[in-house]
Amino acid sequence: MPPRTRGAEPTVVPPGTHGEEATAELRFDANLKWLFTELPFEARFDAAAAAGFRGVEYSSPYEYPAAELARRLNDAGLEQVLINTPAGAPACLPGRVAEFRAGFSLALEYAVGLGSDFIHVMGGRRPAGVSRDRAFAHFVTNLAWAAEQARGTGVRLLIEAQNKRDSPGFVLDGQEHAAAVVEALDTDHVGIMFDVYHAQIDEGDLITKVTALRPRTFHYQVADPPSRHEPGTGEIGWRNLFAAIRAGGYDGWIGCEYRPAGETVAGLGWIEELAR
Ligand SMILES: O=C(O)[C@@H](O)C(=O)CO
Ligand SMILES: [Mg+2]
């Protein structure tokens, strides 16, 4: 992100925060699948660091040896925040348990090798002919197995609800549904990835949800609907939303998972403008 000159603190205290002190500085990481696409993937690490980011996330590290990615992270002085489980075998697919397990084991190997904070265990879309309940039951069973594998590794797991317009038939129905799954698992290393873009499209009521689900939220991702460009290009009231996240004392990362409207670095001004 651009140099951290502190801007004015937000003056609006959102409803539901009861005036708790909003002191935490929000930390943004660059999603290298979405940002810096002007450059080949290998060059995005240095570009992100040069733009001021200290952390990165990307869905798929699997095209590269973990040692090579670890070297790039280290050379650029970046932390790995998040990787996804391999796209081919999401957790909700009946009859693909062996594939899910192999994919998760590979993800865990990479996450440990990269020092990644999180693995996003992708829920996926229910295939035609598979009922909601069946897909959901598979998702929960696979996730519980994955949580057992991750225990003691220091890698935490995330689940994400995706909007039904972009991802029809997605196995999770929204943020509260994701929270209920996390609660039922009753473990401290599985949490919500609250993707603000998806939540706004299907649900709205963002400040209330961010505030209520704060204890179960390990990570946020941001993009502005309808275009999925930078915050400030669409319909969300970002100053108040960021103030609500800050007011809850959140000290984790916020992933920039958006498609830049123009050149990536030229579009980063929203951080100072809306989040400081
Ligand atoms: O929101 C998204 O699209 C991502 O976070 C993702 O992981 C894609 O499955
Ligand atoms: Mg997301």
Automatic annotation (TrEMBL):
Domain Xylose isomerase-like TIM barrel: 45-273
GO MF, one example: isomerase activity
Keyword annotations: Isomerase
Pfam families, per database record: AP_endonuc_2 (PF01261)
Family in the record: Belongs to the hyi family.
Name of this protein: Hydroxypyruvate isomerase family protein
